[in-house]
Amino acid sequence: MFGDGEIPKELSALREEREWREWVDNNLVHILSPNAYRTLSEAVQSFRWFSEVGDWETAMSSWSRLVCIYSGAFVMWAIGGRLKRKYGLEDDVRQSLYKAINDWLEGIGPDRKYMGGATPNLADLAVYGVMSSIEGCQAFKDLCDNTQFMNWYTPMKRSVQEHQGGISKQLREAK
Predict the structure, then answer these.
(1) What does each C-alpha distance from 121 to 45, 109, 166, 168 come to in angstroms?
(2) Does residue 117 sit in helix, strand or coil?
(3) In whole angstroms, what is the distance from residue 147 CA to residue 35 CA?
(4) What is the pLDDT of residues 39-98, one digit of tens each?
């Protein structure tokens, strides 16, 4: 009962969700740029991927697109190095990315499919949104090769594509 020292399960779940969402905002997002733009060649590859998925070919001339890709890659490579120092990431920034994702997976634990349990919660959605932004980059491929991330990411991607979030699912079932 309320007031007897026990935290209701719902409140505990909401607190956990909020803590992980803050972790995404305060930690995970700062690890991405140094990883996506770790080297000049990876930065160019990342910008080529952004060009492809962003359909830059229809939005700008070939010349403008190439300037965006190469100048953007150079600038983001330089910024990535600064971010690495600012946020105290490992010399090999991939190790910081692997550790962050392993922390996330450990937070979910072996008994839950998602941080939200059987269905994703907002923390799941936050991690998915951040990580999907680098899905075509070498950093993402390396992450998949060196962690168990895809065990969570693949069903999460399917859930997002099928709009299987907890609240929207409850609303659909209420109709």
Answers:
(1) 32, 15, 7, 11
(2) strand
(3) 15
(4) 999 999 999 999 999 999 999 999 999 999 999 999 999 999 999 999 999 999 999 999
25/33 Cα distance (integer angstroms): 13
User: Roughly what angle, to the nearest 10 degrees, separates helices 40-53 and 62-86?
Assistant: 130
The residues, ordered by sequence, that sit 6+ positions from 128 with a Cβ below 8 Å of its Cβ are 120, 153, 156, 157, 160
pTM of the entire predicted model: 0.85
Say which amino acid occupies 16.
E
3 state SS of 114: strand
Contact 170, 67 (CB under 8 A): no
